[in-house]
Amino acid sequence: MVSAYRPENLKEALLRRKEFRVIPFAGGTDLMVKGRRWSGLAPHFKLPVLFIGHLGELKNVELEQNCLRIGSCCTLSYLLENENMPQAIKIALWMFASPAIRNIGTIGGNICNASPAGDTLPVLYAVNASVVLKNMNGIREVPIEQFIKGVGKTVLQDDELLKEIIIPIKSFDIIYYRKIGTRKANALSKISFLGLAKMKNGLIEDIRISFGAVAPTVVGSREIEDRLKGKTKKDIKQIIPEICSQYSTLLKPIDDQRSNAYYRKTVSLRLLKHFLTTEIL
Amino acid sequence: MDKYLNIGKSVKKIDATSLVTGAEKFTSDFKFENTLYIVILYSPHSHAEIMNIDTTKAENIEGVVDILHYKNVPRVLHTTAGQGYPEPSPYDTYLFDKKVRFVGDRVALVAANTKEAAVQAKDKIKVDYKVLTPLYNPEKAMENSAQQIHEDDEYAKIPVKYRPDINLAAEVEITLGDIKKGFQKADFIEEHIYRTQYASHCAIEPHAAASFFDERGRLVIISSTQVPFHVRRIVSSVLSIPAGMIRVIKPRIGGGFGGKQEVFLEPLVSLVTWRNKRPAKIILSRKEVFVSSRTRHPTRIRMKTGVENDGTITSLEMDGLMNAGAYGSHSLTVLSNIGAKVLPIFNKIENIHFIGRSVYTNLPIGGAYRGYGATQGYFAFNQHMDIIARKTNQDILEFFKRWHIQEGETSNVFKALGEGKEGVDQIIKSCKLDECIDRGAAAINWYNKRGKRIKSGKDRVKGVGMAVAMQGSGIPKIDMGSASMKMNEDGSFNLLVGATDLGTGSDTILAQIASEVLRIPVEKIIILSSDTDLTPFDVGAYASSTTYVSGSAVEKCARKIAEQIINVASNILKSKKENLLLDMGKVIDIRDKKAVSFEEISLYSLYEQDQFQIQSQASHVSSESPPPFIAQFVEVEVDIKTGRIYVIKFVSAVDCGQPIHPKLVEGQVEGSVVNGISYALWEDYLFDSKGRMTNNRFWDYKIYTATDIPEIETIVVSSYEETGPFGAKSVGEIAINGPAPAIANAIYDATGVRLFDIPFTPEKVYKKIKEAGRT
Ligand SMILES: Cc1cc2nc3c(=O)[nH]c(=O)nc-3n(C[C@H](O)[C@H](O)[C@H](O)COP(=O)(O)OP(=O)(O)OC[C@H]3O[C@@H](n4cnc5c(N)ncnc54)[C@H](O)[C@@H]3O)c2cc1C
Questions:
Q1: Which of A29, A32, A39 to mutate to test the interface with B (most CBs of B within 10 A)?
Q2: Are B576 and B641 members of one domain?
Q3: Residue-range definition of the domain harbouring residue B271
């Protein structure tokens, strides 16, 4: 038997969170897979589940002056259609799962699941997103890279829920995203690569680079990015080997069913090189 | 005017409406009161002896009714292959044995009032194993030091080479001409090794079976099977229940592709029903289908050819090593077909040596799978020919046209090599392969693309490749199908066939054949198939036989009916028989235009004079197996930065004789093509060091889905096979043979990189491209 709570509002949900140990259940597209048993039998969860996917307070997108606030239970389809969504995020969502899964899976679920292959994570890292965690006593805001601690590990406390995601507004004129999965839909990433850049007078004004599925969490380095800023295309050509080898030490991919470490590493670097040499004009 | 009323028309599939409305029943839809649910316990070891089984704890779980294992089931050697009798596959399987031979081999079953209880109990069975050395590498199976996998009384039912003492499950060898001389004559030798991998059929409906006793104590089995009559025979012999006490019904099936030729669940449900006098049911999970049902046999094929500078092949040697897995199901016949279905296509090669060996390993079991060895053989053959054509600077299209078998010709291989034993001589009466090649090439725009390495985008290169193939139409002098028919008073007809529609549409096709003979609309035929109590015998749906073999039985049967109708009509009309014609539910005298309807004829025969029912039956066995032919073309894009292969367009031009139902022909070809592309690019079984399959679910084992499907074009070339019903040959398997070699050839065309092993995953392609310095 699965016991479940279906709160009326966020407050009630947080109360349940405080009183009992429960598993928040948004779209369930990760949870149902994890809880599955022998075919034909109902799924099994160690703790009661707390349905939150229907809570209106968690399903809004608000545009503020400097940032965008995305409710944690917004479905991926909803975000894809939202006019305020930055292009960089939409591109990642296009390749995400399949329409059916996007119609029910949420951005909050993808973040809290903290999978190395989570497809919203590279872009959220790149744009310096932060997450807002809420419990009965209040809220705290945590940068995404501090929120995710490792594979399936986050700093979320037992009495907290992820309320929303904050994205600083910033426009990029070069967006290069590649997700390499086995097939077009419903395939987790073997690797993913995101490069964002803003050019000004032939110089790189801003640049962000993220790698997905090549380490326990998203790989990025503000330090390396800083080295690229203010450079021309020509300058970059000269330091490419160096940049690649710096990233190379950060990439720690594994062999698994989906791919192997050699492929993940060499192709990730190949995409980086392509981004720096060909995409940046 | 069109000479046919129903043939060559895409009439509405007989079960279309009932399928889309969900009214049709599949095995799992049959519900009985008091059912016992069966769950199987599988071996966690790839090779072990069972020292003891203790079921006490499992029995104590509430709802558990029966637990079966090697100690309490009949010990009868048999093969699960589901073939005709005597089977060409070795008798090497028990229901439950004291030994387990791969991870996923069955150890015990639990039957319980609920599935929940059965699952719980299964985990409480205590098994003591003595672990034995496993054997995973087929290339080492015959070495002296290799662990023997079958060491009891296993035997071959027919006189063939079977040597379990050296893990040899099957061997075939033929020599034609003088291979050595041929090599001496050659200007150069071309030799390569090609490898193909495991694959699952991935029928959307998993294997399922149910059984119960009818009111009179006969055992009824409902099963998602391709071979209901073989099921009855095999259950009867394994459980010692007279065949007459068993009735097998095949309901609708959600795909088979060869996987449901295997008879491995029916004896289990039957035994549970027999012992407990209660209905029993088993539905496999996807994981069980992957690991514990059957697979496509992996192969290693070495091709060695002696070639003259003008492209003449002076000698051809083909050496196939096939991994049978833990049991030898289809290990002889699939193996034979690597040569038998491939070598005749180049019938002008005088010197041929074919040797094939199937070896046991401690890995999942191979079995029948669409293409049946031809797929593996053509993967090697078509790449090899592409290499030779390139080396001798020949246009591959012209090369194929020059060497392939033509109408009026034969091949020595037909006689020398059949399915497991000698084959049957035959002369090709229909072959439109030249036209297939020309029209396929035009559709893909071959000459504007071949060798051009057209760039697309910043990092993709295009290439085109092609492949040819033939298959068979049934197994000659072995496969038999039969039909019976009777006429009703409204001028409709019951058509009863043993043939098995597993989603293919054969019910519709057989009804079209009958209605064409009788010159009535298809709706006048009420078809019932695959019920061993009601329908006559048929070997079942395999070897591309249903349209050609069962269809011929239907045609014969309908012709006898037509004769009886004419007889009665001539009595009624007082006309001479030779002046009478069947036409749209009437018999017409062509001279005075007098007519009598089928209704009147039927009523007359049933009630008025010399009463009898217009009815008949017929069987058909073919003395030959006319091959369909195909030329397949593909255009791919290779992403040189990531190694990803994108199939842009796939063209198949097929000669399958007269298409009975063009839409269903297209369906078979498109289905095979998608199946074949998926196999070529992605599908594979991954094992860990303990022999466990690590990607045994659709999450990790990816197959092509709707979004991946490229533009697919199917050209049905006009052709007529005089020995087939209304000129038809087969089409169910052939189109799966081309995708893998055509894609390999296209990748080479795009990049100059040759891939000898399927699947062409990005990991493999990228590595090769990088090694070649092309990224
Ligand atoms: C067929 C299929 C294809 C998929 N393809 C992809 C893909 O291409 N890319 C990809 O990245 N993922 C993919 N996934 C994984 C999954 O769909 C995503 O991770 C999705 O975003 C999860 O969202 P959800 O709402 O369904 O999460 P749920 O399953 O409901 O939850 C996931 C985890 O997050 C926790 N959680 C959810 N919401 C909150 C919250 N507000 N506060 C605190 N904790 C919370 C849950 O407790 C749980 O631990 C796929 C899944 C399936 C079944």
A1: A39
A2: no
A3: 32-132+207-283
| Best residue for ligand 1 mutational test, from A113, A159, A188, A258 (most atoms within 8 Å of Cβ) | A113
Query: pLDDT per residue over B314-324, tens digit each?
Result: 999 999 999 99
Q: Are B24 and B268 in contact (CB under 8 A)?
A: no
Rg (CA), chain A: 20
The two structure tokens encoding residue A5: 């709570």
CATH of the domain at B98: 3.90.1170.50
- What's the pTM? 0.96
What is the identity of the amino acid at B537? Answer: F
How many structural domains compose chain B? 3
The verdict on residue B8 lying in a domain is no
pLDDT of A92-111, one tens digit each? 999 999 999 999 999 999 99
CA of A113 to the centre of ligand 1 (A): 6
Per residue in B25-80, pLDDT tens?
Answer: 999 999 999 999 999 999 999 999 999 999 999 999 999 999 999 999 999 999 99
The side-by-side arrangement of strands in the sheet containing B455-456 is B455-456, B460-470, B629-639, B645-655, B711-716
Average pLDDT over all residues of chain A:
95
Report pLDDT digits (tens) over A13-52: 999 999 999 999 999 999 999 999 888 888 999 999 999 9
Residue A31 Cβ inside 6 Å of ligand 1? The answer reads: yes
Domain boundary among B283, B303, B334: B283
B525-529 vs B493-497, strand pairing mode:
parallel
Q: Which of A51, A75, A101, A131 to mutate to test the pocket of ligand 1 (most atoms within 8 A of CB)?
A: A101
Sheet holding B586-589, edge to edge: B580-583, B586-589, B595-597
Testing the interface with B: which of A34, A36, A37, A41 to mutate, by most B Cβ within 10 A? A41
Pair (B243, B265) in one structural domain: yes
pLDDT score for A40: 84
Cα separations (Å) of A4 from A23, A50, A51, A53, B631?
Answer: 9, 6, 7, 13, 58
DSSP for B317-351? Answer: EEEEEEEEESS-TTTTHHHHHHHHTTGGGGTT---
Residues B523 and B632 in one domain: no
Outline where DSSP puts E strands in B666-775.
711-716
Instruction: Kindly provide the b/e burial profile for residues A53-74, where b requires at least 16 CB atoms within 10 angstroms of the residue's own CB.
Output: bebebbbebeeeeebbbbbbbb
Domain's final residue, options B562, B595, B621: B621
Q: Which neighbouring-strand residues pair with A198?
A: A206
Q: Does B458 reach chain A within 8 Å, measured CB to CB?
A: yes
**Any chain A CB within 8 A of the CB of B459?**
yes
Domain-located, residue B692: yes
Asked whether residue B244 falls in the same domain as residue B302, the answer is: no
- What are the pLDDT digits (tens) for B629-640? 999 999 999 999
**Residue B331 and residue B446 in one domain:** yes
- Interface confidence (ipTM) of the complex: 0.92
How many whole angstroms separate alpha carbon B650 and alpha carbon B654?
13
- Is B124 a member of any domain? yes
Per-residue pLDDT tens digits for B696-752: 999 999 999 998 999 999 999 999 999 999 999 999 999 999 999 999 999 999 999
Is there a single domain that holds both residue B546 and residue B690?
no
- What CATH number should be reported for the domain holding residue B556? 3.30.365.10
**Nearest partner of B692 among B75, B136, B64, B13, judged by Cα:** B136
Q: Are the CB atoms for B297 and B324 separated by under 8 Å?
A: yes
User: Do B641 and A39 count as a contact with CB atoms less than 8 A apart?
Assistant: no
In a domain, B174, yes or no: no
3-state class (DSSP) for residue B438: helix
**Is the beta carbon of A213 within 6 A of some atom in ligand 1?**
no
Residues B587 and B444 in one domain: no
CB B364 within 8 A of CB B287: no
Indicate if B218 and B334 belong to the same structural domain: no
